[in-house]
Design brief:
Helices cover 42% and strands 13% of the residues. By secondary structure, the chain is of the alpha/beta class.
Amino acid sequence: MSLSKKTIKSLFQMKQDGQPISMLTAYDYTIAGIIDRAGIDMILVGDSLSNVFQGNDTTLPVSLEEMIYHTKAVMKGVKQAFVVVDMPFGSYQVNETEAIKNAITLLKATNAPAVKLEGGQTMVNTITKLVQSGIPVMGHLGLTPQSIHQLGSYEVQATLPSARETLIADAQALEKAGCFAIVLEKIPADLATSISKLLTIPVIGIGAGNGCDGQVMVINDLLGLDASFKPKFVRKYLNLNVAISEAIQLYKADVTNKHFPSAEESY
């Protein structure tokens, strides 16, 4: 598949042309390469690796060094997609200077082109400083997993009129601050549609309905690797949990019965 390299400019043009933007997470070289060759527009090295790779209950434990490690692996497998890296919890909340320092460290170490951070109007000064420093920033509003202890649960956000108004103001503030795109997570579909129409930058939804400019999913969810994880907004395109388990059981049986390796598989 011959594809052109995605850039902020080409993503903006996709928004202008009404062409939906596809985005998936990746945490390693092999999967990143498969995603990239399939023609996905954007790849997010998400701090969700804390959950799906490290087995933590929240995204909070993952470190800047771990994000760098995984992003370096992903970048080796990507030729076409635009890669965005999550700034982990604690790497940008302290102050603007610390945020710039950590973002520069992240991008210089990995050669990734952009970062993503969570938060609305309280993050405007930080985002402005990052953008002024030449660092492309993607925003993240709605359900912000790094604030899970403050939110109290993973329920749908911005359901009350006042919260809807705040979210719209947040989105407008992030665009004004210089974000090249925004993720909206787990909010009412009609609100996400309205924000997508209101902003000139791409709006990527996850659990935010079909009216956004694009969609993002965690690759592990798409592939059905975790049988116990079944949120409403996830569509499992495969059931790899079962397929992998069956393959491993076949392997074990072949080893136990001395059917593997065969003569043809031996030297």
